[in-house]
Write a structure and sequence with these properties.
The chain is of the alpha/beta class and 461 residues long. The chain is built from twelve helices and 27 strands. The protein has two domains: 300 residues, ANL, N-terminal domain (Rossmann fold, 3-Layer(aba) Sandwich), CATH 3.40.50.12780; 98 residues, GMP Synthetase, Chain A, domain 3 (2-Layer Sandwich). It comes from Frateuria flava.
């Protein structure tokens, strides 16, 4: 019996391929130590699509990256939208589902407790038919909203960002061109970041779907897991990671299989860490710049370049309160809070900070980013962050707080050292030592989690 998908009922002037249409035999993913062809993947997508309920959207909660890929495409094939909360914590999932009445949640695991309307994927058993794959390579309406990504909440409440299939095709073209220039035509990606995050989506979901790239199904966390996962896939290998994961790899002293490149995002990459990683793993470190709102639009090799090179057809327009981004993946320009200065006739830029990070106290100026860097530069501080508290005084000045992970130091020593590096008006009060910062899966620090941790320490010193 033929399946009639919701997507085919939509009127659209243009359709774009669901999968990179090279050969059905090409390896799309590595799972359980074995390659999975594009044809086999498509058979699994059709199997899952046939089992999905009718709805407008689904929260994609798959942990396994291959299962996420299958679920993502099955949802798209049904004309539905993937909802990608900033966290898979029950509260974050419930908030997203409440904003989309009638949606359901989809995952490959048995969850307890499970979100309301949770739909567990069937075991992937469908077998590939090459003839069917060749004859009916799926095409998706270009204007179909295939995903809604939510920001991390590092600067406040997570916000929703709609992504069409056309916009994903456009953003993938920039990433693929950048990576091919660095490592060659074909490669296999191993990612430590979740596919629900937009950086993980671009580098470990869109690249294998639209770029002919292979990807490992896992999401290794500990250094030994990263090493064994890399060993499961063929060369050339690209490690997609974050500064937090990369620091753990460098400090572990572990040996990794040969890498063609490392890619990093989600937080600024300290130049010292970039240098250590390249020396340790004998591969270039490529840092990419973007946001959930814009997707990636620039890159640099951090050890060699301070300026970011824009992707083709991207234009930046500095504004008093940020930077307007005009890129092929955007229907309309988007304003980011980042302050930049342009160079190379507008084809490159240098990051100057964020308007929201700029501090002015007693006529003196500083940035939260620079204060955090100075905190992290103190010997013995393993992790830390400086941030502003809610509410201001009568003049609208907000107090500055800091959290530091420094097992061998006390708070007075940290403050005394910091006092020699910054103007006293910017000393954080309070500065508290904590066992660990509340980083999410990509290493970011949601503001709500920082304030909660600070309040908890004040209540239970």
């Amino acid at each position: 019996m033929a399946i009639v998908y919701d997507t085919f009922q939509r009127e659209a002037p243009q359709r774009l391929a669901l999968l990179h249409a090279d050969t059905p035999e090409r390896v799309l993913a590595w799972r359980d130590g074995a390659p999975v062809s594009a044809a086999q993947f498509l058979a699994h997508v059709r199997q899952v699509a046939a089992s999905l309920p009718s709805a407008g959207a689904a929260v994609n909660l798959c942990e396994d990256r291959y299962a996420f890929l299958v679920a993502f495409c099955a949802i798209v094939l049904r004309g539905q939208t993937n909802l990608l909360p900033s966290s898979r914590a029950p509260q974050a999932v419930d908030e997203v589902m409440a904003a989309h009445p009638g949606c359901y949640a989809l995952g490959e695991q048995a969850l307890d407790p499970a979100p309301t309307g949770y739909h567990r994927m069937p075991a992937l058993s469908a077998m590939a038919t090459l003839e069917e794959a060749v004859e009916s390579w799926p095409q998706i309406p270009a204007d179909q909203v295939v995903a809604i990504g939510y920001t991390s909440g590092s600067t406040g409440v997570p916000s929703a960002n709609l992504k069409t299939w056309r916009s994903f095709h456009a953003s993938n073209a920039g990433n693929l061109s950048m990576l091919r220039a660095a490592v060659g035509e074909g490669f296999t990606a191993v990612a430590t970041v979740p596919p629900q995050h937009m950086y993980g989506m671009e580098m470990s979901v869109l690249l294998p779907l639209l770029g002919g790239v292979g990807v490992h199904a896992g999401r290794p966390f500990f250094p030994a897991d990263v090493a064994s996962t890399l060993a499961d896939v063929p060369e050339p290998r690209v490690l997609v990671t974050t500064p937090v994961h990369l620091r753990a790899l460098v400090e572990s002293g572990i040996a990794l299989p040969p890498l063609a490149a490392m890619v990093s995002a989600t937080a600024p990459m300290p130049i010292e860490l970039a240098q250590a990683a390249e020396a340790r793993f004998d591969a270039p470190l490529l840092e990419v710049f973007g946001s959930t709102e814009t997707c990636v639009f620039a890159s640099r090799r951090t050890t060699r370049e301070e300026d970011w090179a824009l992707y083709p057809d991207v234009q930046l327009h500095p504004q008093p309160d940020g930077t307007q981004v005009d890129a092929p993946q955007l229907d309309v320009p988007r304003l980011l809070a980042d302050i930049v200065s342009l160079s190379a006739d507008g084809r490159a830029f240098r990051l100057r900070g964020r308007q929201a990070d700029m501090l002015e106290i007693a006529g003196k100026r500083a940035s939260l980013g620079d204060l955090t860097r100075r905190l992290l530069a103190i010997a013995g501080v393993e992790d830390g962050v400086v941030f502003q508290l809610d509410g201001g005084d009568a003049l609208g000045v907000h107090r500055i707080a800091a959290l530091a992970v420094a097992p061998g130091l006390d708070e007075h020593t940290i403050l005394d050292t910091l006092r020699r590096a910054i103007d006293p008006v910017f000393l954080p009060r309070p500065l508290l030592k904590v066992a660990a910062l509340p980083r999410n899966e990509t290493g970011k620090l949601p503001r709500a989690a920082l304030l909660e941790l600070l309040a908890r320490h004040h209540t239970h010193p």
